[in-house]
Amino acid sequence: MQFVSISQRRTGFPEERYAELAEAEMDRARELYTAGWIRQIWHRADTPGACLLWEAGNADEVHAMWSSFPFARAGMTEMTLIPVKPYGGFQPRTKK
């Protein structure tokens, strides 16, 4: 099953704190990507944060993996998780 997560920074944390954890955050993203949990990852263009395409058995697995990121562990980001399914418009049309 696939999921899209949309995250953004929480207010009240100095930029220096994000900078301190940035390398560890990228390392964790590489680990999860290499393991096949993350399929795509993008930085948001509208605000600091990221959008990820996940491959997992259920939403609880994604929440557990997302919670392992340093920014999330420190309470510095929040995330919205959206389950997605294949687009039905590419299926063959039925003949009448």
Description of the structure:
- The protein is built from three helices and four strands, in the order E-H-E-E-H-H-E.
- The protein is α+β, with helices and mostly antiparallel strands and 96 residues long.
- Strand 2 and strand 3 form a beta hairpin.
- The model has no long low-confidence stretch (mean pLDDT 95).
Note the run of SSEs as H and E: EHEEHHE
Question: What overall form do the CA principal axes indicate?
Answer: elongated
Q: Mean pLDDT, rounded to whole units?
A: 95
Secondary structure: helix percent: 25-40%
Main β-sheet description: 4 strands, antiparallel
| Uncertain residue segments | none
Number of domains: 1
How much strand content do the residues show?
A: 25-35%
Kindly identify the CATH topology. Answer: Alpha-Beta Plaits
If strands are numbered along the chain, what order do they take across the biggest sheet? 2-3-1-4
Amino-to-carboxy terminus distance: 32 Å
How many helices does DSSP assign?
Answer: 3
User: How many beta-strand elements?
Assistant: 4
Specify the CATH class. Alpha Beta
Give the radius of gyration: 16 Å
By secondary-structure content and strand pairing, the structural class works out as alpha+beta
Which architecture does the CATH hierarchy give at level 2?
Answer: 2-Layer Sandwich
CATH superfamily: Dimeric alpha+beta barrel
